[in-house]
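Letters spell out the chain; backbone shape is given numerically. Take this protein:
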Amino acid sequence: MTTQTSSLLDLRRPSLHVAEVWLNRPEVRNAFNDEVIAELTQTFAALSQDEDLRVIVLGAHGKAFCAGADLNWMRAMADYNWEQNRADAQKLADMLWTLYQCPVPIVGRLQGDCYAGGMGLAAVCDVLVAADVVTFCLSEARLGLLPATIAPYVMRALGEQASRRYMVTAERFSAVQAHALGFVHELCRADQLDAKVAELVATLVGNGPKAARACKRLVRDVAGAPLSAELRADTAQRIADIRSSDEGKEGLQSFLGKRKPGWLVG
């Protein structure tokens, strides 16, 4: 395993195909500031270029996953003019977009409270695993603000109707409720969290590497698209492309031959 730890992020590489990114500010409940946003953006931009990667785990050290904005950062923003606020918000929007666009499947590991901007981070994960003690909250309205930059991702993951309620009321809601709403995919006891994440990581590593990336891109591109002739043609082309690829041929031949595919050998 290789490890690269800073005061902000803990980046680990347990194997060639797996990376782990841990928020590393437990003393402030892993809250965002401009430095955290910049480092997350740079880290995921770099990981996106790694062709060997098959899965990224996004987690956090300490009791909370992410409590939203850092208080000191918020104090500084209170004196920003409109242009400074706009530039600052754009950096957060760009960071979330970088994670959302990452071609590698991301497994979110939520061990503790997930508030405000933290819900944006959770929402861009492809698979979300949460301990049953986790509490969620879109708390911005309590401060006279709104969750604008995270909204496109939260609304896709949480749904419009639930987002309407929790953005307006700023109520806390439980991991059980988040699971029932489909925001959380897997719910487990805190002592089972690592085992469940490891199970999902093993599943993702076992899939065709290019196929998994293509599936992620397929969902992003097709969700909400009109059922048109163009969409039918596009999806037909995608399956033809992957069937005729080396990975697609190897996957089918290994299945028919009752052997492991090449990406699991060597």
